[in-house]
Amino acid sequence: xxxxxxxxxxxxxxxxxxxxxxxxxxxxxxxxxxxxxxxxxxxxxxxxxxxxxxxxxxxxxxxxxxxxxxxxxxxxxxxxxxxxxxxxxxxxxxxxxxxxxxx
Length: 103
Prior knowledge:
single chain; Arc Repressor Mutant, subunit A
């Protein structure tokens, strides 16, 4: 985490994500990003983004995708950079807007 950045408790993150993923809620704003933004990501980065959209922690993602937690951190960092996002919460919201779920 960068100096000055705040953290959000995993439970709060899950509730935020659940709210954004609620049935009947629009998946994507008309002016928001479309699926083309995913073209910059590798298959694994898309899988990690899907897991983030479910509110999973790095440890949970590592278990689900059968990879080291350090590898998950690398994927998260790279996908944040490629998508020009500042936090995993932004990534989770984007994943939800695009209808992504982890494998």
